Amino acid sequence: MALYLLRPDSTAMQFPEQIRTMAEPVLTAVDVTTVMAATVVLSVVAMIRRLSYGVAAVLTLTVGANLGSALVRVWADGAPEAILPSGHVVAAMAVYSTGLLVASPRFKPVVSGLGAVVVLAVVAASLASEPVGLPGIAAAGTITAIWWAVASIIMVYSPIAAERERQRPDPAAMALVRHR
After folding, report:
1. Domain boundaries, the chain
2. How many DSSP H helices and E strands does the chain contain?
3. Burial class (CB in 10 A: 0-12, 13-18, 19+), 56
4. Residue 35 vs residue 15, higher pLDDT
């Protein structure tokens, strides 16, 4: 917000042309079709795991974050391109966060590690080939974090999650009670 008010000429980083050509295929892979395919796959995972509210969380996070990013770009019309959120980064972070929400505990380390690598690759490619700067990356992370919180609330406060908690109370809370 402060950068928007100050209106700097450019906060984008400059990279050599060789690095930009290497970064283009990474950003080409993150398009609408890829994000929607990942959304469908994550929705199927949520259904297989019987997380009925998980499908709503998947759709809320992936669609909401991407639409939120587009709305910020429309709202901040006239702002330097370098401080606006990168759509590629928002899409990668949203899919990664959604994967963490619906993955089973058994696969969370794999999803966490591989997803972090993909997000970092997309961030590096965006910095190298788009006119986006670190404020734009921070804006993308903020938008995704807001929608991740909304999706997490959907998952936590669903009636199914409440029933599951009644059947299997939190072991950490039980351990705390035992040691008092």
Report:
1. 13-178
2. 9, 0
3. middle
4. 35
